[in-house]
Design goal:
The protein has 623 residues and is of the alpha+beta class. The protein is 47% helix and 17% strand. It has four domains: 60-180, no CATH class; 184-274, Helix Hairpins (Orthogonal Bundle), CATH 1.10.287; 284-382 and 592-619, 3-Layer(aba) Sandwich (Aminopeptidase); 392-587, Aminopeptidase (3-Layer(aba) Sandwich). Strands 3, 4, 5, 6, 7, 8, 9, 10, 11, 12, 13 and 14 form a twelve-stranded mixed beta sheet that branches. A two-stranded antiparallel ribbon has the order 1-2. A hairpin with a 2-residue loop joins β10 and β11. The radius of gyration is 32 Å and the shape is elongated. The two termini are 44 Å apart.
Length: 623
């Protein structure tokens, strides 16, 4: 790291009429930054639960190591227990365990016990996922489940091994309780309680109605209280005080009520354990402070301006000199690009981001960060990195249409110009509002998807008064709008492509013409570099077609070409390659390999490639 110290000469009096020149280092610093607002101050870091008072001994070191790894160990044991429970149910040779449960509980048939055991195994797997994220509510559920299993095995007597495993897991849970501090989603907690009441009410109404609507199937004339107890017992798969005539009627009644009970338990547990997903919103104060950081440090990252999306939240450093923009999707705190601000303040913003992730049990992920950002995220947040693709950056000063390699672009531009196309390049503030309204209307008609796609490399808005420095490129043919490009500022001397749309009836090569005209107009706009589209897995597409490529690389490239039938993977790479850009690698930072599928789903939904139905979001209380 380059030191920021400067040297100055100071005169120090040593004796009378004697002066000595002494060289002393002093720190060059900026004026003290304004004190950050209270709402962005990160919460105080909790005292690590693994600190042990007194002298450090071998036993204390083992205790510290155990507490650090306790969530993973306990989650792994819970997963094993859940899988073994499901195996016991599915394998015919292991049905003896189910029969043992039927002997312990007043269950009328082994099929009911099988269903209960299968649901218990499934819930153990779900609870294990919550334990891995250090969820407090998952810890409580695991304590109850393991305690019940241990007591059941002890009462049976001959299941000493299973009882020992359950007791061992219970002991681990109790000794490591301080590690499970992640907060539950308050919305999900109350929603789960409401679901429990509603589903149980529906089940009780169904059971009571069945018993009253078929009186000839009921033995005697039991009271309403006896009928209610019968329904309650049937919800857990047990026999109640009411006797019924007809084996088929009794089986149907008890089976449907047991199904109601199991579905209720599964739904309530899944809702209660789901991660919090707060509504991301960029406040006006945060937006103004972020614009100030971009004005000073916006040259560092071409994706910096996209942090101004208003569906993101900011995690600020304690000094307010850096921030990380993120959004929570499916329990994944998905950040995009590098932190905004002074790189020396990045660790502070990453610490605040990490505290939020640990406080709520989220999974941290960063999409589209640079090599420097991935390195710092690895050091500060222990996030591994994988190259996601490359960003195409065109240098305005060195760009030229001359040469054989640029013949395709040169011919396309010449052909489009002969067809009567003209291009206008203006800042947003220089476009009349009425004209811009027409541009927005036509661009919306050209949009292929029902929703605006993009998250990490898209602003998802046009014509906002706060984005007056954005550049709009419009193409016309005989006075009719045919194409639109929208670029956001990249510092004070760059532009980053945000949106590219054209009329489906326009001639091929229109986008090439608009980009070339923008690059030509770059010096007049004070632009020296232009960031184009992002090429996903560019290195694989390029090296996979070369002679000597291995079978794995060729297979990976073939999979990408197959996916290109639905997503623009190869086509964007080929389009960017036309302009002979410089390739800047972009990375995906993630905690562990097992989290990659979940992160991929969250990223696809954030980019609007996967869309949750509106009705589903309303039912699940998700926005």
């Amino acid at each position: 790291m380059i030191s920021t110290r400067r040297w100055r000469t100071v005169r120090v009096p040593v004796a009378r009429d004697v002066r000595q020149l002494v060289v002393q280092p002093v720190h060059a610093h900026l004026p003290a930054p304004p004190r950050p607002a209270p709402h962005i101050q990160p919460p105080p870091w909790p005292k690590p639960p693994h600190r042990v008072a007194g002298p450090i001994t071998r036993l204390s070191r083992l205790h510290v190591s155990y507490l650090q790894q306790a969530p993973r160990i306990i989650a792994g044991l819970a997963t094993v227990m859940g899988l073994l429970t499901l195996v016991d149910v599915l394998m015919p040779d292991e049905r003896g365990r189910v029969h043992a449960i039927t002997g312990l509980l007043p269950v009328p048939a082994t099929s009911a016990a099988t269903a209960v055991t299968a649901v218990a195994g499934f819930l153990l797997l779900r609870v294990a996922a919550g334990l891995r994220m250090r969820k407090r509510i998952a810890w409580r559920g695991a304590v109850v489940i393991t305690a019940v299993l241990a007591v059941a095995h002890v009462l049976k007597g001959h299941k000493i091994g299973e009882a020992a495993i359950a007791l061992a897991l219970l002991a681990l849970l109790l000794t490591a309780r301080s590690r499970f501090t992640a907060k539950a989603d308050p919305v999900s907690r109350w929603f789960a309680a409401r679901l429990l009441f509603e589903l149980v009410a529906v089940a009780v109404l169904y059971g009571m109605a069945t018993l009253y609507l078929y009186p000839h199937r009921v033995v005697g004339d039991p009271s309403w209280w006896a009928r209610l107890r019968e329904v309650a017992y049937a919800l857990v798969g047990a026999d109640g005080p009411v006797a019924v005539r007809g084996e088929r009627f009794g089986d149907i009644l008890h089976a449907t009520l047991l199904a109601f009970g199991l579905v209720t338990v599964v739904v309530v547990v899944l809702v209660a354990l789901r991660p919090s997903e707060p509504v991301a919103q960029l406040s006006q104060d945060d937006e103004q402070r972020l614009r100030s950081l971009l004005a000073r440090h916006g040259n560092r990252d071409s994706l910096g301006y996209f942090a101004l999306r208003r569906d993101k939240t900011l995690a600020w450093s304690p000094t307010g000199k850096s921030a990380i923009a993120y959004r929570v999707v499916h329990g994944v705190a998905l950040a995009s690009g590098d932190p905004i601000g002074d790189p020396e303040a990045w660790p502070g913003a990453m610490t605040s981001f990490r505290r939020l992730v640990e406080d709520y049990g989220w999974t941290a992920a960063v999409i589209g960060c640079s090599e420097l950002g991935a390195t710092v995220f690895k050091r500060e947040c222990d996030l591994a990195a994988i190259e996601l693709g490359d960003e195409a950056v065109v240098d305005v000063d060195t760009f030229t249409l001359d040469g054989r390699q640029m013949r395709g672009v040169r011919q396309a531009c010449t052909r489009i110009e002969r067809c009567g196309y003209s291009v206008r390049i203006r800042r947003t503030k220089d476009i009349d509002r009425d004209e811009f309204a027409d541009v927005l209307r036509v661009a919306s008609m050209w949009r292929g998807a029902a929703v605006e796609r993009g998250y990490s490399m898209a602003l998802s808005r046009l014509g906002d008064a706060a984005d007056e420095d954005c550049v709009v490129v419009t193409a016309y043919q005989d006075g009719e709008l045919r194409g639109v490009l929208h670029f956001v500022p990249w510092g004070c001397d760059g532009l980053s492509l945000d949106l590219m749309r054209r009329d489906r009836c326009a001639d091929n090569g229109l986008n090439e013409l608009m980009i070339v005209e923008l690059i030509k107009a770059g010096p007049g706009l004070g632009v020296r570099r232009v960031s184009l589209n992002f090429a996903l897995f560019r290195d694989v597409l390029e090296r996979g077609q070369k002679v000597g490529a291995g079978p794995i690389l060729r297979a990976w490239r073939g999979l990408l070409l197959f996916a290109s039938r639905w997503w623009q993977i190869e086509s964007l790479y080929r389009f960017n390659l036309k302009f002979r850009p410089e390739w800047e690698p972009r990375f995906l930072s993630y905690p562990a390999t097992r989290d990659l599928p979940r992160i991929a789903i969250a990223a696809l939904e954030a980019e609007a490639f996967l869309i949750r139905p509106r009705l589903f979001k309303q039912i699940c209380r998700r926005t």
